[in-house]
Give the backbone structure.
Amino acid sequence: MKLQRFENASLFYNRVKDYLLSQEAMHNLLLGIADTLIHHPHRYKSQPYLATVEVDREIVAVAMRTPPYDLVLSQIKDLGAVEVIAKDLHSFSETILGVNAPTVEAKAFAQAWRSLTNQSYQLKMAMRAFQLEQVQNISQASGYLRLATESDKELLVRWFEAFYLEAVGKVESDPKALINHHLQQHTAYVWQDQVSVSIACRGQLTPNGARIGLVYTPPEYRRKGYASACVAGLSQTLLNQGHKYCFLFTDLANPTTNHIYQAIGYQPVGDWHNYCFT
């Protein structure tokens, strides 16, 4: 069992793409990160950790980390690869705050990291990955989907901060930088009624799809169908643009969003766990 690190994102992607595309929906996060590293490398300020574990030149695991974000693991064919990755990261004195991966792989890495570092771990979020091929239900909420513009920036920054405070209890990224990126790339969409009431952003791309992230509706506008309409509208927009699939992750602790997305046409493909180390 051999671990190979990559310095060049394009070479890494060429090596892992077939492995990741065999389960594109489950690997949409890794594929999206690779796409960003290749086409928008300025998004990450530090050298990424890009690695494969192979047996007889056959990939059995893929690992990625873009500091300061958590380690992300693929589905793993041989769980012995988890210890190989953990030891490699530890030998280079990597500081890891958490791991984000399919449930079995996430738990295995958390246990391996605890054995190496004596750091305890706890489940930060249980998630489910979804895939959509056809929008089944468009909400009848009043209003329409529109592309966000520079005039929305101040509002969207506030919504971004509120989204993260509600979802994870703290703002983990630079709100202004993220919103600026979405505005520059034309990937932020707003549901507009008499006023702006909801946001959904197109996230990273995969070869055949696009991920939706940062879905947020302020409390005063909830239970009116705005979020459902916004996500359905954006999903249809992405399909119309030529993407074969749309992907998203849900927080399993939020039954409302899980119901909304399935009503739109999203189908569950697998569960992920995000562990943090303390």
